[in-house]
Design goal:
Elements (H helix, E strand, L loop, with lengths): L6 H29 L4 H23 L13 E3 L4 H11 L1 H24 L6 H24 L11 H20 L2 H5 L1 H15 L6 H5 L18 H29 L5 H20 L5 E3 L2 H9 L5 H15 L1 H4 L7 H23 L7 H19 L9 H7 L2 H17 L8
Antiparallel strand pairs: 1-2
Helix pairs in contact: 1-2, 1-3, 1-13, 2-11, 2-13, 3-4, 4-10, 4-11, 5-10, 5-15, 5-16, 5-18, 6-8, 6-15, 8-15, 12-15, 16-18
Length: 428
């Protein structure tokens, strides 16, 4: 089908993108808020403003001008790799230091965006393909956990009802992809999520509590949690996390460029990094968290076949509206974990496949390339599955070694430099 759609269809596709990223977007404030002991009112604010700012951050990235905006169909959400460092900073130095470090890191990203875009040679297909593949494969266990109910330690984990909901969702997505045509086929994930939720409601598995507790209207407030404080170690830690997010976003940008048939150039990267930096600064001012390109939406662009930015504009507007009306936003929270898990499994699998597609450009006759891919993916999946391997090292080091995406990114970049030098090898 063509990649052009009318406003009505684009709005539905935008809703699909919103549902695809919603669980990942709210996971960060939920984890950090819980880790810092926030009360219910604080958590409500945190989730609402997070959703609002996801929309604002996405609009910054969609809007192309000479200063910022990459202009690809990318959705921005909170960076999951920032969770552990921010909890550590908050527990050690207080909430004000959390947001001071975020603001400082955002300023840093804006300032180095020009330089970082010039090292594009660090990200040939062998690097970006490896990172994107690792991202997809690393996230699949998250989807599997949700398919079982969301908490592997719970007695109800793996309950037959959960498995039925998860697999029915997957089967619905597959059925729409196989038998659907045109626009219906492009919203296969949305059909699966809605169908799975309807079945869950019939089985009494839908909880409406979140809607009842949420306030009717919410206004974003800068410095809601107080004045930001600037502590050197915390700032340095968040700068390192921001650089990791930039590497991950670079992979997302190149993956989307590959899907939509657009060559991502140095100026595009510069504007993309600046938009991300501005989003991080705004996140600090309004007391949310750092933002990065969401990889699950890459899989959705690939799966839907709709490659324009119009649906993402709708998604961004929906996010902003949901952030203002928490009761409406809470509707997305009623989707049961197993249903979300089924949809996420398909999308994360598509992300991994997109990475493999990028790796198809690599020259496999060169054994050095095989080593780069093998070791980097091995580090990414292995260290993520067994972070206790580094339990004897300092806690700050463990934050990085326990993140598979970080280790895969660093490994791929360093090994590519070691074997091929600072030049774009003809791997394709």
């Amino acid at each position: 089908m063509t990649s052009e759609t009318g406003n009505g269809k684009s709005a539905v596709l935008g809703l699909q993108h919103l549902l695809a990223m919603y669980a990942g977007a709210v996971a960060v404030p939920l984890l950090i808020g819980t880790g810092l002991g926030f009360n219910e009112a604080q958590m409500t604010y945190l989730i609402s403003i997070d959703i609002f700012m996801c929309g604002v951050a996405t609009l910054l990235q969609l809007t192309v001008n000479k200063f910022f905006g990459i202009g690809l169909p990318v959705v921005l959400g909170c960076a999951i790799q920032a969770v552990a460092p921010l909890i550590l900073i908050g527990q050690t130095h207080g909430v004000g230091t959390v947001y001071g470090s975020i603001i400082a890191a955002g300023i840093f990203v804006v300032l180095i965006s020009g330089f970082f875009s010039k090292v594009e040679k660090l990200f040939p297909p062998i690097v970006t393909g490896t990172v994107i593949t690792t991202i997809g494969l690393t996230l699949i266990p998250v989807a599997i956990t949700k398919m079982g109910g969301g908490d592997a330690a719970a007695k109800s984990f793996g309950d037959p009802t959960n498995l039925i909901l998860a697999f029915v969702t997957i089967l619905l997505i597959l059925a729409v992809q196989v038998f659907g045509r045109g626009f219906i086929r492009s919203i296969a994930v949305l059909v699966g999520l809605v169908g799975g939720s309807v079945l869950a409601a019939l089985l009494g598995q839908v909880d409406l509590t979140a809607i009842g507790h949420a306030p009717m209207f919410h206004v974003p407030q800068p410095f809601y949690f107080g004045t930001p404080k600037f502590e050197p170690f915390s700032i340095l830690l968040m700068i390192i996390i921001s650089i990791v997010s930039m590497v991950e976003s670079t992979g997302v940008y190149f993956a989307l460029g590959d899907i939509v048939g657009k060559e991502v150039k140095e100026d595009d990267l510069k504007r993309g990094y600046r938009a991300e930096g501005l989003a991080v600064i705004l996140g600090g001012l309004f007391n949310t968290f750092p933002y990065t390109g969401f990889s699950q939406n890459v899989g959705l662009v690939q799966l839907s076949g709709i490659k324009t930015r119009r649906p993402i504009y709708f998604s961004a507007i929906f996010l902003i509206i949901l952030g203002l009306f928490p009761k409406v936003g809470a509707l997305a929270q009623i989707i049961p974990e197993p249903v979300l898990g089924g949809g996420m499994l398909v999308m994360f699998g598509m992300v991994a496949v997109q990475g493999m597609k990028m790796l198809s450009k690599v020259n496999y006759n060169d054994e050095k390339n095989l080593l780069i891919i093998a070791i980097s993916i091995g580090f990414g999946l292995g260290f993520n599955a067994m972070p206790m391997l580094f339990s004897k090292l300092p806690e700050t080091v463990q934050m990085f070694t326990g993140n598979g995406i970080v280790m895969s990114s660093v490994s791929a970049i360093v090994l590519n430099l070691l074997f091929h030098g600072y030049k774009r090898e003809k791997n394709d």
